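The pair is quoted verbatim as follows:
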Amino acid sequence: MTRADRLALLDWDRKELALKTQAELLGLNRSGLYYTPRQPGPEELGIKHEIDKIFTQHPYYGSRRISAALRRQGLVVNRKAVQRHMREMGLAAIYPGPNLSRRNHDHKVFPYLLRNVVIDCPDFVWGTDITYIRLTRGWMYLVAIMDWYSRYIVSWELSDSLDTSFVVAAVKRGLGTATPGIINSDQGTQYTAVEYIDAVLSAGVRISMDGKGRAIDNVFTERFWRSLKYEEVYPNEYYTPREAREGINRYIDFYNYERPHQSLGYRTPAEVYRADAGATIPSAVIHRSSQEGGNSSLNHPHSMS
């Protein structure tokens, strides 16, 4: 468990268990607990929450359209402020290029491997993405690892910052249960970081990264974000990180094991994932060429649309 994970478990308002005791149980140094950054005011939080709603419904909206949508709701906010809020929230429109986390141009970017690929079995391609989770007095960030064939959420992590550690923790947890052929992501800082790349490649998994104009590749995860927020996050105002973690955990269990999907023939993701588990991953993935060698060996007759 990362330090961010342990910090997220702290309950600052819990009276029956002192903060000192909680820190000791979680293995945290108390000296670093009492720095509290500027808390956002109610107006800023309200605007961020509305941006989150608009972006969840329309992930192709950039700051200009979101500013216009906010003004239609009677909120007076200029575009520069919206851009700043979106940067802090880790949001950027998925068109013309999906990039929900900002790219570090000094980091390595991997080629896109999924053009013309048919995903016809579990653990062939996993996708990973990050979203903003609102709290009553702040916000957190959620990363999810999804099996694209079944829509099954393989792993997830919640963090109070956009550092790389919570993404790596989610990936390692997922890789502890299965090994996909490919993991696809955007080109954000978390996914171009050395820690992430090493974790994936050391497991023998190929890395694919979205290029410009590949907004459609994120559609499965965007639908999951929308379902999660409208069915769980928005109806239940989370006061603490603990409440957010418990609610999201409860919803993902429901999503995986109970919620039927029309696109899956009204089966659940877990039913599809388990029913076809062990299916043969195409030999092009098993016999991997070098990561820099292009993706011609992965081409199939039908396009990944």
In short: The chain has twelve helices and five strands.
